[in-house]
From TrEMBL, chain A:
<dbReference type="InterPro" id="IPR015590">
    <property type="entry name" value="Aldehyde_DH_dom"/>
</dbReference>
<dbReference type="InterPro" id="IPR016163">
    <property type="entry name" value="Ald_DH_C"/>
</dbReference>
<dbReference type="InterPro" id="IPR016162">
    <property type="entry name" value="Ald_DH_N"/>
</dbReference>
<feature type="active site">
    <location>
        <position position="254"/>
    </location>
</feature>
<dbReference type="Pfam" id="PF00171">
    <property type="entry name" value="Aldedh"/>
</dbReference>
<dbReference type="GO" id="GO:0004029">
    <property type="term" value="F:aldehyde dehydrogenase (NAD+) activity"/>
</dbReference>
<dbReference type="InterPro" id="IPR029510">
    <property type="entry name" value="Ald_DH_CS_GLU"/>
</dbReference>
<comment type="similarity">
    <text>Belongs to the aldehyde dehydrogenase family.</text>
</comment>
<feature type="domain" description="Aldehyde dehydrogenase">
    <location>
        <begin position="29"/>
        <end position="473"/>
    </location>
</feature>
Automatic annotation (TrEMBL), chain B:
<keyword id="KW-0560">Oxidoreductase</keyword>
<dbReference type="InterPro" id="IPR015590">
    <property type="entry name" value="Aldehyde_DH_dom"/>
</dbReference>
<dbReference type="InterPro" id="IPR016161">
    <property type="entry name" value="Ald_DH/histidinol_DH"/>
</dbReference>
<dbReference type="Pfam" id="PF00171">
    <property type="entry name" value="Aldedh"/>
</dbReference>
<dbReference type="InterPro" id="IPR016162">
    <property type="entry name" value="Ald_DH_N"/>
</dbReference>
<feature type="domain" description="Aldehyde dehydrogenase">
    <location>
        <begin position="34"/>
        <end position="256"/>
    </location>
</feature>
<protein>
    <submittedName>
        <fullName>Acyl-CoA reductase-like NAD-dependent aldehyde dehydrogenase</fullName>
    </submittedName>
</protein>
<dbReference type="GO" id="GO:0016491">
    <property type="term" value="F:oxidoreductase activity"/>
</dbReference>
Length: 474, 296, 312
């Protein structure tokens, strides 16, 4: 047996302060709300104490953004571009520090924050930097105007990447922003604030307000916010859609999903197994576009499941900072409770539960990679977003049945198709009601590629030329 | 008794009904309401659609969605062009109905409606070239984004009984959506006549469903319907109703195109004679992005 | 549960049906999986163990036109005592030479436990008649080779004459007698991973004891994804037939890092049964000194210098 010795990434690259304030108008200031603690979900160790923004603080932030809007929006796009290029470069320069901090605060494996999140974050800023002085060529008219102040609320699953998805296009288009990171993962956003200062970004162009749901609500409902961008649960998305009714606010929502990953009997099996694993166990399944429903053609179901189980047995769960860790910690106690509740319910509903032999650390929030077989479309684990490392396995007989089952959900964010037959891929891709279809791959992201959902998975697209529309008055 | 001249011939009046799933039913509620001309003369009793009619119309639109969205863009363009032809052929009838409704220069307005249909017809096989993209991702993948219809769209048509109506329906259906339209409450008759045009234009039944009646009564049911994917509030003039509809639409995250704000009445959103741009097309399109590896 | 493949090679149609019925390999996905495994960080005790295991798996190889008995004798000495200064360094698995030099190797290694492998069958191109290939094999076997590394007829494979490839392997296997047969696929000439998987199965079905990536004379040679695809094949073949076939990447493995990455592939793809010299070999020569230098660095804490390791 080849035991890998611990290979921890050094924590020394990050310098976490005992407490953090809000970033408003280019300065760190105290919040008037009750501050809260952010913990390392892998150990429950308190990392720092973070200010909570009250409605007054949010108002200050929006005013700072409004004040900055005039100069920022009037600045030549080529100048805005250079600020964004600067930010992208600093992110690259400080990427190890950001990756370690992200893994500490979020619980995701360092391999993912280092090899996936951070490269994409930098790439996103580079990409939109290039748009800032090319907006007249984007297909939104000869001189598209920014919207004004964008209020942005992001989730905890990809804290810095979601920040990049929100801030980069907003700034490129000439908007100023007030961004609220998730309550459980504020630290990289606060480090980003420091990066904005290193880049000499004019004060007020980016403001970061930390806090919980009330802070987010105060931001979304602020009358001087022109644009609301939200990534998170469908439940909160609904509230936001309702709260902006009758206002002038433009809204984009990137919400939940229950993606089908469809494997045909002629698929490249080893790669399909990798795709299934990457689809649902990447980032502990804390992925809105996760392939949480495996639809496998009945004729190969047994063979595929055997291969999948064998593969799961090689997944390495544990210390997120260990470079060999595949599965990190669940982000919070609340999320762990939700995953447990839905999984227990899966068993109650009669589905068969399986996890590889896998020792869970004693402290922290952990859940083993889990497969449910014998799942029916009517089971809650097949319908509700678990947002954890839990895969429901269903079978199908024909392509039409696969499409029908895949689409039989109020969500429509993503889908996967695995087959070596090209024409079948295109036929399936045509019929799947999902914003992203990964064929013979899964969970790929790129700044040039629009991302976003159908139906209750939200509206608007992030990434690519399409992503500009959300921040332009068109 | 002396013989008299026979009286002037009594006209056969048209019965104005709903248009659902390609058929012309009366409201299941049996209700109707009197439509009068701009001068207050009685014109006809229009059906007053109920929430059940709205429900039936949504079901018809959903049923038609698969076929219509799956039709080739060329085919959809041909059918929209055919609608324009049929409308042109009934120019006089529409002009008369518009005159009754108080529309100025009714003949010009019919011409504009025909031209609008022709304009949108051409978009059927071009919008993908404008709204789609081949994305140069940093990896060995083919990555293509293409626009797809959102699904079933509920449309509250503006109080511009023909040009406004055509200007909101054509962009919705040309890309493959199906719709349920609430016609102008004040002047619904051209909408019903347009339904007759649609019914004879090779447009599959259910692609466009037209309801007449009370906007205030029907619109909230459509806004809250969980099998409607998007909502066009173009014709909602009551701000309170617009807010209520938008709130109801939030329940299943419908895409909502708000009515034109008062300060923007002169642009694409309210001036039906203005160049409409592509905004009404893209508002009811989803972007689907497909990835595939490139390798041997 | 095992499956009988008795009739699979009865005709080209049957073989083609079988081989083309194997699941395809998506190149991009396979490359990514191999690259991800390449990021595994093997440190401290794990690295020390991996280095010794890798040394024990080396087929120390010289396959030059300029090879001489003297060169072979020197290499054999190194095979038995890779680091004369440190007796704790394990012996390599085998030396690998041309058939005409087998006798020298056998003599030099007598009683050492290090095996003698020989390339045969008109190595490296394989372009000769079956009779010549069989004679070449016998030459090596009769000189005392424990292992024969044959090359497949890539031309026959690429033209779809799978029966010819199959029958050549069975004929060489027969000529091997007691000697173990390693079947070189020369994956660099097979072009696709689908072909690598098919050729792997073909070689296993025909009785090969090992499947080997390359001759070392063609680029690319032992890439990580190709080795991974072959490891998947032996894993699946064991599940289907109950017989474990070995894997030997050869060519291009020059550093300790590469060798350890190979072991990670073995560990996570085929499983620990293959983490032994009887089922996994590294065909290489220069990698040995790098392994020794890394080994010394682990032991002393100082970076090593090449002048302190022998160049045989």
């Amino acid at each position: 047996m080849f035991e890998y010795a611990p290979a921890p990434e050094s924590r020394d690259v990050v310098d976490i302060k005992p407490s953090y304030g809000l970033f408003i108008g280019g300065e760190f200031t105290d919040g008037t709300g009750t501050s809260f603690k952010t913990v390392n979900p892998a150990s429950e160790e308190v990392l720092s104490e973070v200010a909570s923004a009250s409605a007054d603080d949010v108002d200050r932030a929006v005013r700072a953004a409004r004040e900055a809007f005039g100069t920022w929006s009037a600045m030549p796009g080529s100048e805005r571009a250079k600020y964004l290029f600067r930010i992208a470069r600093i992110i690259q320069e400080r990427s190890r520090e950001l990756a370690v901090l992200e893994s500490l605060d979020n619980g995701k494996p360092i391999r993912e924050s280092r090899d996936v999140d951070l490269p994409l974050v930098a790439a996103h800023f580079f990409y939109y930097a290039g748009w800032a002085d090319k907006l007249p060529y984007a297909g939104y008219g000869p001189s598209p105007r920014p919207l004004g102040v964008a209020g942005q609320v992001i989730p905890w699953n990809f804290p810095l990447l979601m920040l990049a998805w929100k801030i980069a296009p907003a700034l490129a288009c000439g908007n100023t922003v007030v961004l609220k990171p998730a309550e459980t993962t504020p630290l990289t956003a606060l480090l980003f604030a420091e990066i904005c200062r290193q880049a000499d970004l004019p004060p007020g162009v980016v403001n970061i307000v930390t806090g919980a749901g009330e802070t987010g609500a105060a931001l979304v409902n602020h009358p001087d916010v022109d644009k609301v961008a939200f990534t998170g649960s469908t439940e909160v998305g609904r509230l936001i859609a309702r709260s902006v009714a009758g206002t002038h606010k433009k809204v984009t929502l990137e919400l939940g999903g229950k993606a089908a990953n469809i494997v045909f009997d002629d698929a490249a099996l080893d790669q399909a197994v990798e795709g299934i694993v990457n689809g649902i166990f990447f980032n502990q399944g804390h992925v809105c576009c996760a392939g949480s429903r495996l639809l496998v053609q009945e004729s190969i179901a047994e063979e595929l499941l055997e291969a999948l189980k064998r593969r799961l047995s090689t997944l390495r769960l544990g210390d997120p900072l260990d470079k060999n860790t595949d599965i990190g910690a669940i982000n919070s106690a609340a999320q762990l409770a939700k995953i447990r509740e839905l999984s227990d319910h899966g068993e109650l509903e009669g589905a068969e539960r399986w996890s590889p032999a896998c020792a869970l650390p004693e402290r922290g929030f952990w859940f083993p990679p889990t497969i449910f077989t014998g799942v029916a479309q009517s089971h809650r684990i097949a319908r509700e977003e678990v947002f954890g490392p839990v895969l429901s396995v269903l079978t199908f007989r024909t392509p039409a049945e696969a499409v029908e089952k895949a689409n039989n959900t109020p969500y429509g964010l993503s889908a996967g198709v695995w087959t070596e037959k090209g024409s079948r891929i295109l036929w399936m891709a045509d019929r799947l009601r999902a914003g992203v279809v990964w064929a013979n791959t899964f969970n790929r992201f790129d700044p040039t590629s629009p991302f976003g959902g159908y139906k209750e998975s939200g509206y608007g697209r992030e990434g690519g030329r399409h992503g500009l529309e959300a921040y332009l008055d068109v | 008794m002396s013989r008299t001249e026979s009286p002037a011939r009594l006209a056969v009046r048209k019965t104005y009904k709903l248009y659902i799933g390609g058929a012309f039913p009366r409201s299941e509620s049996g209700r109707s309401y009197a439509v009068t001309s701009s001068k207050g003369e009685f014109l006809a009793n229009a059906s007053r659609a109920s929430r059940k009619d709205a429900r039936d119309a949504v079901a018809a639109a959903r049923k038609a969605f698969g076929g219509w969205s799956g039709a080739t863009p060329y085919n959809r363009g041909q059918i929209l062009y055919r609608i324009a032809e049929m409308l042109e052929g009934r120019r006089a009838q529409f002009a008369a109905e518009l005159a009754d409704a108080g529309t100025k220069s009714p003949g010009d307005v019919v011409d504009a409606a025909v031209d609008r249909l022709v304009w949108y017809a051409g978009w059927s096989d071009k919008i993908a070239a404008v709204a789609g993209a081949a994305n140069p991702v940093a990896g060995p993948y083919l990555n293509i984004s293409s626009p797809e219809p959102t699904g079933v769209v509920a449309v509250v048509a503006p109080d511009d009984p023909l040009l406004g109506l055509v200007s909101v329906v054509a962009p919705v259906i040309v890309t493959g959506n199906t719709c349920v339209v609430v016609a102008s409450e004040r002047a619904p008759l051209p909408a019903v006549t347009l339904a007759e045009v649609l019914a004879t234009s090779d447009l599959p039944g259910g692609v466009v469903n037209i309801l007449t009646g009370s906007v205030k009564e029907i619109a909230p049911w459509l806004a809250g319907h969980m099998d409607v994917n998007a909502l066009d509030l173009a014709g909602v003039s009551d701000p309170g109703l617009a807010v209520a509809c938008e709130e109801a639409a939030a329940e299943n995250l419908k895409r909502v195109l708000r009515p034109a704000p008062a300060d923007r009445a002169a642009d694409w959103a309210a001036d039906w004679a203005a160049d409409p741009g592509t905004r009404r097309l893209t508002a009811f399109l989803e972007t689907k992005t497909v990835w595939h590896p490139t390798g041997i | 549960m095992t499956t009988s493949f008795a009739d699979v090679a009865s005709s080209n149609v049957a073989l083609r049906t079988f081989l083309h019925g194997l699941p395809g390999v998506d190149r991009v996905g396979a490359d990514q999986r191999a690259a991800m495994l390449g990021t595994r960080s093997i440190k401290t005790t794990a690295k020390a163990e991996a280095i010794d295991l890798a040394i024990r798996m080396v087929d120390l190889t010289t396959l030059e036109g300029a090879d001489t008995p003297g060169k072979v004798r020197a290499m054999c000495a190194k095979a038995v005592h890779p680091d004369p200064a440190d007796p704790a360094v394990p012996k390599v698995a085998a030396v690998c030479v041309y058939p005409d030099l087998v006798a020298q190797a056998v003599g030099a290694l007598a009683g050492s436990g290090v095996k003698v492998a020989s390339v045969a069958t008109a190595f490296p191109s394989g372009r000769s008649s079956l009779d010549v290939k069989v004679a070449d094999t016998r030459l090596a076997v009769e000189a005392g080779a424990d292992e024969i590394d044959m090359v497949i007829d890539r031309g026959a494979f690429l033209s779809g004459d799978y029966v010819k490839v199959f029958e050549e392997i069975t004929a060489i296997k027969e000529a091997c007698g007691e000697a173990h047969l390693k079947v070189i696929l020369e994956t660099g000439e097979l072009a696709t991973y689908d072909n690598v998987r098919r050729a792997s199965w073909l070689a296993m079905l025909a009785g090969g004891d090992f499947i080997k990536t390359s001759t070392g004379k063609v680029q690319p040679a032992a890439t990580f994804p190709v080795t991974m695809v072959m490891l998947e094949a032996v894993r699946d073949f064991l599940a289907a037939t109950g017989r474990a076939v070995g894997v030997k990447p050869a060519g291009g493995i020059r550093t300790t890092k590469d060798a350890i990455k190979m072991l990670v592939l073995v560990n996570e793809v085929a499983g620990d049964r293959w983490l032994a010299p009887d089922l996994f070999r590294l065909g290489a020569s220069s990698v040995l000194n790098d392994l020794l230098m890394q080994r010394q660095k682990m032991a002393t804490g100082r970076y090593a210098g090449p002048d302190y390791f022998t160049l045989d």
